[in-house]
Amino acid sequence: MPHIELIDEHTWRIEPEGDMRVPGIVYASEEILASARADKALEQVMNVATLPGIVGASIAMPDIHWGYGFPIGGVAAMSLDDGVVSPGGVGFDINCGVRLIATGLDDAEVRPRTDALLHELMRRIPQGTNDRGSLRLSPAELRRLIEEGVPWLLERGLATEDDVACTEEHGAVPGADAVSQKAVQRGHTQVGSLGAGNHFIELQVVAEVLDDETAAAWDIRRGQVAVMIHSGSRGFGHQTCTDHLQRMAGAVRRYGFELPDRQLACAPVGSPEGRDYLAGMAAAANFAFANRQVMMHEVRLGFEQVFRSPWERLDVRLVYDVAHNIAKLEEHEIAASGVAGSGGRIDERSVARAGRRTAGESSRATVLVHRKGATRAFGPGRPELPPVYRATGQPVIIPGSMGTESWLLAGTERAMTHSFGSACHGAGRRMSRGAAKKVMSGAEVRADLEARGVVVRAQSTGLLAEEAPYAYKDVAAVVDVVAAVGLARKVARLTPLGVLKG
Amino acid sequence: MTGVVRAGFELTEHTADVGVRAWGSSVGEVFEQAALATVSLEYDLETVRPADATTVVVEAPERDLLLAAWLNELIYLIDGERWVFARFQVDAVGAIEDADGRSAWSLRATAIGERRDARRHAVRTLVKAATLHGLALRHTSHGWVGEVLLDV
User: Fold this and answer.
1) B50/B47 Cα distance (integer angstroms)
2) CA of A176: how far to CAs of A79, A140, A148, A276, A433, in Å?
3) Number of domains in chain B
């Protein structure tokens, strides 16, 4: 068992031991920490701390659970000078993420039409193992889509300028390239498809507003209907990760790295393997942003169909789109990322090694931030954000488990200094799929949700049992920790009217 | 190959993933069983007609990485080229020198099945990838054993 101590409210520090280059920092309640101790998640936090060039600390969010390689909920920033990039620190579903769409409609107007709306969305957006997305692209068109991202959809009438502005990275991570023929073959029919597993589209109502000022600035109000889309880069991203991971696994020995887990396979950020992975990752990230955008277009058309009115008049608009499996080049205040804050002082050598300094500001540096099941949560003032969010901090969208509740948070200054501008990403599984299926059948889960007023549509009833709410941690407990630590502040709580599953 | 060890596989559940453990009297049998384990998660093997076959050739710098590369190639063929497989036959597996003269491992196998037909093949789930977490391929007193964790 690692030596772990409480250094601040909900903030736990694992002292460096063995090959760890930096401490581990875990944001968790006592209960969440006990569950992380029970599996191998803390060991994985320590493993990530051994990676070359890691800056500050190996961080885990309160939705921490055992992944492969990195823990889910893991955040690690790497120096550009002597740090590495690790595909396992992003995951196979590159840019799995969440998009929150607000509407001008209220609960009372939409609730009676929930069935009709879900039917319309199910008809328009392929789910589950049905991989024929709503947008068919030739290989040449797919290449443009992955190079240009969401802005490419503008000229096809599938996106608006506001949509682009309200997508992380403006829906286009630069430098996309290094995509295999296999990835193209796997992904070219899948743009505009939901996928299976924990991915969903939910029709939601703003049940509670907790920060009136921010909610007003974002045009969010109680009783308002919203749509949440949780999906990623489909087979395109899975193949891209596989291709680069296999190549890096073969190169690890050549770079002289000793790794505690092969899924941590990595290469120097500037090496041929590292550069190529980042180009492939950018392509898959753009695929995922575009995938969610195309689904949003279908959501707009679905509302038009059901409410017999143009979507512009129904005010179906994007609040924000966030990635929660990604690695990003970002400028951070390194000395301040005590990550450790009050408890731990950052290791001076790790600061000295940290990436490229910005002239005149010795403590600012560009680092490569891996977020594996963690959401960017930039606070006020960041130039990456559109004006409305630059004043408030960015929207941080936290989906709950199917049919429970989801949260809209705002990024904070404290996230900038304590977690490289990151917060949690969701509830986090607590039961295996098999264990979940033993509790209730899919039909029982459906009946249970419908008894609570949540309409369920799914391609596979069996999958409903695997994704039952009790298979996940309580998202409210996760969000409470994030808010108590101050990595994000609560803006609104959303509850579901209906859910569409793969 | 001697048949003293009965080949087989088992699936073990993790919180968010599925572990495969496959065994046999030879490395080839382990590869065949690991493939059966992987596809058994995706669809019902009984529904697949052995009407067609494709040759699969993979290389990897180390023997256990070859196990992941093999499964990832099958995952690609199923998701990308819409194959469904009923059987696998490893034709050759062994050490080679790669194009740069470094030692590597190579596998040649035949995957037998047909192209997916939505009317006959219900795909339960698509495996995203074979991970390298806990990847192992070793010889024991009971023959060969392979372990791999799948992201589903």
Assistant:
1) 10
2) 21, 14, 8, 9, 35
3) 1
- In A93-112, the residues whose Cβ lies within 8 Å of chain B are 93
Domain extent for B82: 11-139
Tokens coding B32: 């065949």
CB contact under 8 A, B149 and A68: yes
**Annotation says A332 is catalytic:** no
- Is residue B148, in this structure, part of any structural domain at all? no
In a domain, B100, yes or no: yes
Partners of A250 on chain B (C-beta within 8 Å) are 60-62, 65
- Residue B2 placed within a domain: no
Pairwise CA distance, residues B70 & B74, whole Å: 7
Dihedral sign from CA coordinates of A474, A491, A9, A54: positive
* Cβ contact A185–B80 (<8 Å): yes
List, in sequence order, the alpha helices (H) in A71-138.
Answer: 107-110, 114-124
Q: What is the pLDDT of residue A341?
A: 40
Q: Which of A68, A196, A242 sits opposite B126 (nearest CB)?
A: A196
Give this prediction's pTM: 0.94
| CATH classification of the domain holding B59 | 3.55.10.10
Any B CB within 8 A of A242 CB: yes
Tracing tokens 């990322």 back to the chain, one arrives at A337
Q: CB of A274 within 8 Å of any CB in chain B?
A: no
pLDDT digits (tens, 9 = 90+) for A290-304: 999 999 999 999 999
pLDDT in tens, A99-138: 999 999 999 999 999 999 999 999 999 987 766 777 888 8
Bridge partners, A378 (sequence order) = none
Rounded Cα distance between A248 and A331, Å, is 26
Q: For residue B61, is it within any domain?
A: yes
